[in-house]
């Protein structure tokens, strides 16, 4: 579809990926689902990128998967390109933040939930509509949603297919912060700037451990890196000298 694409802009340590399909309220086409992992593969090894923001163009985050590609997604089930994109986003080594305004529905909610943090404007609306369409939500997506909001809230979203507002999303843990729309961009900028100032070693290790992707050997590896990298010594010295720390560690490209 003409005009449907993902764009990337890098400003300092933050890369912003924009979902752009204005004719369909930023619905994700098959080409866009395929494009997302490719973009993330390029951004992940970039040592200058410390965080990624995912957002939608204009007044919507993402209204879901483009229904013109529905047959392809249905035939593939849990091996669909949408699930592959979601899994790549969830497994991205660096912090990811969804900046949400307007519709965040279906595939849009799928992408938002795969991000580490979700900052929403007051006009954001969230929904998971498979029950309205007679579909089965992918198992990885369903489990990720349930881990985030809890089984009961996930069942409510999936059983009813109702849209919920930003305040309710905040109460159930689907959104981390809600604020007026004219403050969304500034808050996301401040948040990602703060994350970018922190130790990449600490942040990357925390993400792996929280997401249950680090076994005992990997956790031991992280603790050795604390000693080997000098990050902790720099952090303590910076605090004693009342200056900003200069964290130099960068994750190896091969993980």
Looking at CATH, the homologous superfamily of the largest domain is: 2-enoyl-CoA Hydratase, Chain A, domain 1
DSSP helical segment count: 12
Relative helix content: 40-55%
Distance between the termini: 36 Å
Q: Return the CATH topology of the largest domain.
A: 2-enoyl-CoA Hydratase, Chain A, domain 1
Which structural class do the helices and strands define? alpha/beta
Biggest sheet features: 6 strands, mixed
Give the strand content: 15-25%
Family: Belongs to the enoyl-CoA hydratase/isomerase family.
Protein name: Putative enoyl-CoA hydratase/isomerase
Keywords: Isomerase
InterPro entries: ClpP/crotonase-like_dom_sf, Enoyl-CoA_hyd/isom_CS, Enoyl-CoA_hydra/iso
Q: Could you describe the 3D structure shown?
A:
With 255 residues, the protein is an alpha/beta fold. The protein contains twelve helices and nine strands. A hairpin with a 2-residue loop joins strand 1 (5-11) and strand 2. It is globular, with a radius of gyration of 19 Å. It starts with a strand and ends in a 14-residue tail after the last helix.
């Amino acid at each position: 579809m003409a005009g449907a694409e993902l764009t990337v802009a890098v400003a300092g340590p933050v890369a912003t990926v924009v979902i752009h399909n204005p004719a369909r309220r930023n619905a994700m086409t098959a080409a866009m689902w395929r494009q997302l992992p490719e973009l993330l593969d390029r951004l992940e090894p970039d040592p200058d990128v410390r965080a990624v923001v995912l957002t939608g163009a204009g007044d919507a985050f993402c209204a879901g998967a483009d229904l013109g590609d529905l047959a392809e997604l249905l035939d593939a089930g849990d091996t669909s390109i949408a699930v592959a994109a979601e899994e790549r986003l969830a497994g991205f080594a660096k912090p990811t933040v969804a900046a949400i305004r307007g519709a965040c529905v279906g595939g849009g909610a799928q992408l938002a939930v795969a991000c580490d943090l979700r900052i929403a404007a007051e006009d954001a609306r969230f929904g998971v509509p498979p029950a309205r369409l007679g579909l089965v939500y992918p198992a990885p997506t369903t489990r990720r949603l349930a881990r985030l909001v809890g089984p009961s809230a996930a069942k409510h979203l999936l059983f009813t297919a109702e849209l919920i507002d930003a305040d309710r999303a905040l109460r159930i843990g689907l959104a981390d912060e809600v604020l007026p729309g004219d403050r969304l961009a500034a808050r996301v900028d401040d948040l990602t700037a703060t994350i970018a100032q922190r130790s990449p070693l600490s942040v990357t290790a925390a993400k792996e451990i929280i997401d249950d992707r680090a076994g005992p050997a990997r956790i031991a590896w992280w603790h050795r890196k604390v000693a080997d990298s000098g990050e902790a010594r720099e952090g303590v010295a910076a605090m004693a000298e009342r200056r900003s720390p200069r964290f130099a560690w960068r994750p190896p490209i091969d993980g």
